[in-house]
Amino acid sequence: MIKFNGHIRYFVTTLKSSFEKYIKPHIDEKICSMHGCKKPDEVYIDNKYKKIFIIEKKFQQVNGSVCEKIQTAIAKHWYYNKRIPTYEVIYMYCLSDWFKDNCIGELQMLKEFNIPVFFGNDENYKKDIIKFMMNYYKNKT
Prior knowledge:
By secondary structure, the protein is of the alpha/beta class. The chain contains six helices and six strands. The chain has helices at 19-23, 66-70, 73-83, 98-102, 104-112, 125-136; strands at 2-3, 10-13, 42-46, 51-58, 88-95, 117-119.
């Protein structure tokens, strides 16, 4: 269990390889597994309010196909919410600054589909993620 300083919510966090095993009792087996969805980089599970915050981290410094990888957020968000129907899954990214100049269209799309994006080079990115998670509960629980 983890509790962020100054906040009242408790979360279960798992290692990448343990997430699927931990959440297995809540999985709808009729929804087939999708590639790339078993081992999220960071997971915070609120069992009391049935919310799962998934943070995927992507770091890039040179051109490549990584812009296409962040396009999968919409599919993964859909998948997790269908596969774990008793929880609300909130999917988000923590990206390196490289994405700001090189994946402008993808960032616009993520914003339109309400996929939060945080930048790991920002001085307060960890605090910003925690603030987002805590504010998410307002008018939702």
